[in-house]
Specification:
The complex is a heterodimer of chains A (845) and B (217). By secondary structure, chain A is α+β, with helices and mostly antiparallel strands. Chain A contains 28 helices and 20 strands. Chain B has 7 helices and 11 strands. In chain B, the strands form 3 sheets. Chain B has a 6-stranded mixed β-sheet, with helices on both faces. Classes of the chains: A alpha+beta (845), B alpha/beta (217).
């Protein structure tokens, strides 16, 4: 009990007496930790708890049958004839756009007749589909979720593929049916007709009898299926998508830890200052009988308390930040990966544990070194008071040598391959470079503040000289502050360079990729995994429009390859076209590669696909297409930045051999030389009347691409902003503590004739110097980290080749903004410094 | 000083540090204020140096009433006419010896303060230590630097608050002799607070203080 009393009196009570300092430490912990909690929570809502919207109204089944291009419905009939007592639920799974709102929702077609028998009838009844059979011959009948706000009998305009049609709401599905909130249900026949999938279904769900083992059932069913048809446990697509999203979430999570890392620097600084300030007290307590362990424990307990309160504060703050982040994450997931609806944000036991482990872990780790230092204070320190200020020694040359070793290790780690699909060595390299920079900072600070002091005095007067000397004199504190801000700036710079480089690469790629003059696709918002089709006759009609030279048809299917989603596409090859849209890693001329592609069972794969599945030119891949499993030779790998899951590209004729559906998903129109774009576009518009298509010019499509790109990276900017905010907040707090620690010096300056404005200038020059040093160090570190991000982490996570590019304007403006913010952070401490009473502060000492 | 009273508020209570003190110090005089801790010596020095203002009464420095001056005028007054020496030296640890001496000149906007600072250091016998850091000096040397700093801008009044309080007897005596020598050479006025009668003996005039009042001339 006595020890706790001492702990309260010596550690906690001083904190309560100066709540401002304690609040700033808590702010750094809470905001850094909140960023981690927010990203975890928002990631979980947007992607982590990902459940494919196609899992709506599936019920409890064991297996599913799928096939690229759809499963022939005869398969269901064949399986029904087997003496296996299976319950089969064939389904159409597509998307429809509600014309009135522009919202794209899942469209599910189920066999209402089949489902009305047996145990499924109960589910239908629970779902509110009473007596649905009376509408099975009505191709316009739909059942919608209550969330859509429609009444029974009301009309609803739906755009399915390229056709808009009036449908009638025949029933409302209650939320208990887990329809997915906003999905639309149809009878399977009507759905097949509406989606142009006559004779095929997208999935057959299978419920096996309870008797016998699952593997036995799987073996027996597989025997009855053609080679290209895939049999897997129900929800495999969801699992595959989850696996695909894992890398995205992983990288995002790592980015969120940066704010915590910046917070760690500031916690380290705060505890260090606290130790330095209390050395005499520690010495006295040691002289009175406190052991080293007691001192160590006291400081660690104090840090734990900060960690605990900061972590608990991080939960509501994280929840607040998550509500802003979840929208951004959903947009990215939909644009880049797969259609999904963000779930609800919840503070779960997991998020509480994460907040506590991350917050307290980082706080304790940051406090360990200063706490150990406190425990080393000899009892004689108590007698040293007033003789000379204690100065923390920094072995800057030794630290610089360690920095060099860390940098070399970082460079080595950056060369290592990924581990279990994750760029772990890339992260290690980044951490080693951050460590190297932190250890090199004292040498840089010392060199600049001492070597530059004379010049600074000539340029900015005595205040600059005093500021330089003061910063150089408290090297550890200055180094930690510069290190914290530099780390945040480095992250901002590196992500800025990476995103800027990526943007420039995508722009260059789009220049080459978008060689057509007009592009057509079904109207309605599209996610990465949606491929609505265009009626085959449309391409022919467009080709006959005067001014049109040729039309290239593109057809895409979502398939699964090695347990991961991928896009299979077939494209018209025209070797006589002026510009070919693909460019290859091999550097081969596109015409040569495309000529070979047209020649037989050959394929091209995109760079992300090649990296994800470790394939290269010359390898073969076997794809389940329709009912067969043909093998294709990979001719080359092409650059692609459109789809993270990756593309497999076939010649259209080759694809039609296996998937005979001729409807394309996109059309590229090439105009004759000299043809007028606007008048030809109007003629094309007229030619496609009756089909609801978007006709986009090359320029518009390019703009749209960049808009989606910028939207995708909005979350990274938000995370960077949090890191910078943590750093600036920390700097403000640290400057304040510098002012409090140096009040004697300010007092003496007033005695020696210094004015209030000179004291203010001195404090602001210090803030400016910290900002300048941090900007310079952060820019250098950021450049190195951007190389790791571009050439190691991005490459190993997503497989994209990004050309390095300096986004000068973005960097200059953001660095200037941070610099100004740092100087502004000095205003409040400067005001306090000016208001200090010189007599009091000199007398105190 | 005319009927000067100075009150402070401490923990809600009013504490009288100086009580109706009147004192006139002629130019070139060396005056010692002697008394126990808390008797009002330092308060009197702060008032004399225009660092603080009386609750009642007036302080005039070369005829100028400090309470009638604006903040910039007070700063100018301190810069031009007053020098301070403290018991605990109050050097700036991050600056070298000569840089410490240069500070008042730099604050006043002097462009090239080095020759004046070196000259002043030479006058206190520390020219050869000019480029050392302050923590490399002994206590006596530190106080010499502090004296050089207090005199570098040529003040008319030197205020010394327990200048020997942190020094051993021999070093303290050397500092007192240095102050006396400076007074004689430069004809400046020195007001020194001390609790030591021996130290006070070097002054022309000794004023004893008790409970905020002068008790004996």
């Amino acid at each position: 009990m006595g020890r706790f009393t001492l702990l309260y009196r010596l550690m906690l009570r001083p904190l309560l007496q100066r709540p401002g300092r304690a609040l700033l430490i808590l702010f750094a912990i809470a905001l850094g930790d909140a960023a981690v909690v927010a990203i975890d929570m928002a990631g979980d809502a947007a992607a982590g708890s990902f459940r494919s919207s196609m899992e709506s109204f599936t019920g409890n089944n064991d297996l599913e049958i799928t096939a690229a291009g759809g499963v022939p419905e005869t398969i269901a009939a064949q399986l029904a004839r087997l003496p296996l007592d299976l319950r089969l639920s064939p389904r159409i799974e597509d998307h429809a756009t509600i014309v009135a709102t522009g919202e794209t929702v899942p469209l599910i077609g189920i066999d209402l007749v089949g489902e009305a028998n047996g145990e499924a009838a109960q589910r239908l009844d629970q779902a509110g589909l009473r007596d649905p059979i009376q509408h099975i011959n009505d191709p316009d009948a739909v059942w919608v979720a209550g969330a859509l706000g429609k009444a029974v009998g009301e009309k609803i305009d739906l755009l399915i593929n390229d056709q808009t049609r009036d449908y009638t709401v025949r029933g409302l599905v209650p939320d208990t049916a887990k329809l997915g909130g906003d999905a639309i249900l149809m009878d399977i026949r009507a759905a097949q007709q509406a989606t142009g999938k006559s004779g095929r279904v997208d999935r057959i769900l299978i419920k096996t009898p309870r008797s016998g083992s699952f593997d036995d059932w799987q073996r027996q069913i597989r025997r009855a299926l053609p080679a290209g048809i895939m049999l897997s446990p129900q929800g495999s697509a969801t699992a595959a998508n989850r696996r695909m999203l894992a890398a995205f979430r992983w990288n995002l999570r790592v980015l969120s830890y940066i704010a915590l890392l910046v917070g760690a620097f500031l916690i380290y600084n705060a505890i260090s200052v606290s130790v330095v300030r209390r050395r005499a007290d520690i010495g006295a307590v040691r002289a009175l009988g406190a052991s080293r362990n007691m001192v160590l424990s006291a400081f660690l307990l104090e840090s734990s308390l900060f960690g605990l309160i900061g972590s608990l504060a991080a939960l509501p703050l994280g929840r607040l930040l998550a509500s802003g982040a979840v929208g951004m994450l959903s947009t990215t997931v939909n644009a880049l990966y797969v259609s999904s609806t963000a779930g609800a944000l919840r503070i779960t036991t997991g998020s509480v544990l994460l907040a506590l482990i991350a917050g307290m872990g980082v706080t304790l780790a940051s406090a360990l070194a200063p706490a150990r230092e406190a425990s080393q204070v000899p009892p004689t320190e108590a007698m040293a008071r007033g003789r000379r200020e204690y100065e923390v020694r920094i072995e800057r040359h030794r630290d610089a040598l360690i920095a060099l070793i860390l940098a070399v290790l970082g460079a080595v780690a950056a060369q290592a391959p990924e581990i279990a699909g994750k760029p772990l060595m890339g992260y290690l390299a980044a951490m080693l470079f951050v460590g190297a920079s932190a250890l090199l900072t004292p040498l840089v600070v010392h060199a600049v503040t001492f070597a530059g002091a004379g010049l600074m005095r000539r340029l900015m007067g005595v205040e600059a000289l005093l500021a330089c000397r003061s910063l150089g004199g408290s090297l550890r504190r200055t180094s930690v502050l510069v290190g914290a801000l530099a780390t945040a700036i480095a992250m901002m710079t590196s992500v800025g360079i990476m995103v800027g480089s990526f943007r420039q690469t995508v722009l260059t790629w789009m220049d080459a990729q978008l060689s057509g003059d007009l592009y057509l696709r079904p109207a309605g918002a599209l996610n990465a995994d949606q491929h609505p089709t265009i009626a085959p006759r449309v391409a022919e009609r467009i080709a006959s429009v005067p001014g049109v030279e040729s039309v290239a048809r593109f057809r895409a299917y979502e398939i699964e390859y090695q347990g991961l989603p991928a896009t299979l596409a077939g494209v018209d090859i025209d070797l006589h076209r002026r510009e070919q849209s693909l460019s290859f890693l091999s550097g081969r001329p596109p015409v040569d590669v495309l000529r070979e592609l047209a020649a037989g069972d050959n394929a091209l794969v995109s760079e992300p696909f090649a990296n994800k599945h470790h394939v290269k030119a010359g390898d073969t891949i076997t794809l389940p297409l329709g009912e067969t499993r043909p093998t294709f030779r990979i001719l080359d790998i092409f650059y692609d930045y459109g789809h993270e899951a990756g593309y497999i590209l076939l010649a259209r004729q080759t694809m039609l051999k296996y998937l005979p559906n001729p409807a394309p998903t996109n059309l590229a129109v090439f105009l004759k030389p000299g043809a007028d774009l606007e008048s030809t576009r109007a003629a094309v518009q007229k030619a496609v009347a009756g089909s609801d298509l978007l006709i986009l010019s090359n320029a518009v499509l390019r703009r749209e691409g960049i808009r989606v790109f910028d939207q995708t990276f909005a979350i990274t900017y938000a995370l960077e902003a949090i890191s910078i905010l943590v750093a600036i907040g920390g700097i403000a707090g640290a400057l304040l503590s510098i002012v409090m620690d140096r009040r004697r010096e300010f007092g003496i300056l007033r005695f020696l004739g210094g004015t209030g404005s000179q004291i203010r200038k001195l404090t602001l020059v210090e803030a400016g110097l910290i900002g300048l040093l941090a900007n310079a160090t952060g820019l250098a570190l950021g450049f190195v980290l951007s190389l790791v991000l571009i050439y190691v982490i991005n490459k190993q996570s997503f497989g994209w080749t990004i050309q390095f590019h300096w986004p000068v304007t973005v960097l200059l403006s953001s660095l200037s903004l941070v610099y100004v913010a740092t100087v502004l952070a000095g205003i409040a401490p400067a005001r306090i410094a000016v208001r200090l009473n010189p007599i009091e502060v000199v007398h105190e000492e | 000083m005319e009927h000067v009273t100075r009150d402070y508020a401490a923990e809600g209570e009013r504490v009288r540090a100086l009580n109706d003190v009147s004192l006139s110090v002629g130019s070139g005089r060396f005056v010692a204020l002697v008394g126990r801790s808390g008797c009002g010596k330092s308060t009197l020095l702060h008032l004399a140096g225009a660092m603080d203002f009386p609750t009642a009464g007036h302080v005039r420095l070369e005829g100028l009433a400090t309470d009638a001056l604006s903040e910039p005028e007070l700063t100018r007054l301190r810069r031009e006419k007053v020098g301070f020496v403290f018991q605990s030296f109050q050097l700036l640890n991050t600056l070298s010896v000569v840089e410490n001496v240069e500070v008042p000149l730099l604050l006043a906007g002097r462009r090239n303060p080095r020759p004046a600072a070196m000259e002043r250091l030479a006058s206190v016998g520390l020219a050869e230590l000019a480029h050392r850091m302050t923590h490399q000096l002994s206590g006596g040397q530190m106080q010499r630097v502090a004296i050089a700093r207090a005199l570098v801008h040529g003040p008319r009044l030197l205020l010394a608050d327990e200048p020997t309080g942190n020094l051993d007897t021999a070093t303290g005596n050397a500092i007192l002799h240095l102050l006396r020598q400076i007074r004689e050479e430069q004809k400046l006025t020195i007001l020194m607070a001390t609790h030591s009668a021996e130290a006070a003996a070097i002054a022309d005039v000794v004023i004893h203080m008790r409970d905020g009042q002068m008790v004996q001339d």
